[in-house]
Design a protein that fits this description.
The structure holds two protein chains of two kinds.
Chain A: E1 4-8, H1 12-24, E2 29-33, H2 46-50, H3 64-69, E3 72-75, E4 80-84, E5 89-92, E6 97-99, E7 102-105, E8 109-111, E9 124-125, H4 130-141, E10 145-149, H5 155-164, E11 168-172, H6 185-197, E12 200-203, E13 210-213, E14 219-223, E15 229-231, E16 234-237, E17 241-243, E18 259-261, E19 272-274, E20 279-283, E21 288-290, H7 295-310, E22 322-325, E23 332-336, E24 343-350, E25 353-360, E26 363-370, H8 376-385, H9 393-396, H10 403-412
Parallel strand pairs in A: 1-2, 1-7, 2-3, 7-19, 9-16, 10-11, 10-16, 11-12, 18-20
Antiparallel strand pairs in A: 4-5, 5-6, 8-17, 13-14, 14-15, 20-21, 22-23, 23-26, 24-25, 25-26
Chain B: E1 9-14, E2 24-26, H1 32-41, E3 48-49, E4 59-61, E5 65-70
Parallel strand pairs in B: 2-4
Antiparallel strand pairs in B: 1-3, 1-5, 4-5
Classes of the chains: A alpha/beta, B alpha+beta.
Cofactor (chain A): FAD
GO molecular function (chain A): oxidoreductase activity
Keywords (chain A): FAD, Flavoprotein
Amino acid sequence: MSDSYVIIGDGIAGASAAETLREEAPDAEITVLTDEGESLYNRILIKEYAKGKLPEAPISIHQESWYDDHDVDLRLNTVVVDIDVENDAVHTHEGETFEYDSLLLAIGGTPQQLPVDNADADGIHHFWTFQDARRIKESVEDAERAVIVGAGLLGIDFAAICGAQDVEAKYLMRGDCWWRYALSEEGAEIMHDAMRERGVEPVFDSGVDHFEVDDDGHVTAAIDPNGERHECDFAGVAIGLNFNTELVEDTPLETEDGIVVDEFMRTNLDNVFAAGDITTFNDLVLGERAKNGSWGSAKEQGTIAARNMVEYGSEAFEWVSSYSITHFDFPFLSFGHPTLGDDSVEATTAEGEWRRVALKDGRVVGGVLIGDLSPQSAFKQLMREGRDVSDQTEVLMEPGFSVDDLAATTEQQ
Amino acid sequence: MPLRQTNRRMRLRRTGIVPSDARVRHYDELEEETQVAVRELAGRPRTAPETDDLDDGDVVKFTDYYQVRAR
């Protein structure tokens, strides 16, 4: 009898797992359940669609025929309501039961809503799915003034969308700069200038106390905690994700800001695995549990999970992720875990070029590059090697830095 | 190994219109060596060896949209 694999989620983690399972286990039964109404699409590019820069078609990755061609049973619009780990089965909202030998949870997260009055008013958007992108595009095209909340990697997509659609926007930030956990004011100012050039004005030490709405329930303004009123007919909120762990609340699965897995993507149950945003994984590079929401990480986790579902212990997840922002005429890239570590070093290396490297116990654990991405590979290599650079951090800030520079410095000492 | 075993070289040309039938790749989807090539070629009249994860006609989203030409 062939093995039976059930995957919940058809994002890049679930889809890459399905593809790998088919390669590794040609005779297996593979079922993919997703609550979305469309099969795998490119989540990195949906912001480009919302900006009006891309048509819909190139964003689709897997047509439904892909699943037929690979003998994968895809069930769209299917909500899993219960996971019965004692009987190795999942139950859906329509009363169907899918039994499994091995289960993969690639169930991701859901955008958080602001805990303020009128946070669910018409015209207030969160950004996660292609359907969100369609609604955002339609709404922002009719908008004149916008408010953006959430000074991080997802919030800046809203800023770029407003800029591209010629909508004046106020970007309300709680601190004194954008992504203050990873950037200093000096680095962030490059991003602020780019926002301003596109008609998006950063407002610091701000936020939202509540939204005002009209008689039809459509947002008309955001009132910040200082009492300032920011008129808007569109609001974009990107303050983080709630990971979809409610599905496993009544199971013995260990959770900690997500579903805990080992380096083989296995949970504390032998035949249940997880991959993608939902995981809190044993990060072999960092040396502790970590989370990662990047596309590349999710794709790799799906692949690794699948291999270990077929043969546990066959391959560990050891990955240095990166995430770029390509909205502006200069590139931005974060890598590894730029908000972690016990030390950091930063520098402006040329006009419009800035970098910061986060260190833990003298080793590179992440960083941010603005303007010049050329050291990206070198910093990732240092992370993989776990090399102690504590006595030569200034070399990391040299323009044109390569690992060879570091070796030369070491030899000189 | 993302570098192809061919003699073809690729260049990137900025493009204002993305055809509906084009395969569009974001910088973050690309192999690390391809990312290096994209950074080197974007907006510059240079060529580099063709890579495994880009094909002639593909469009790459980096700081702009660039169409791949491989010859």
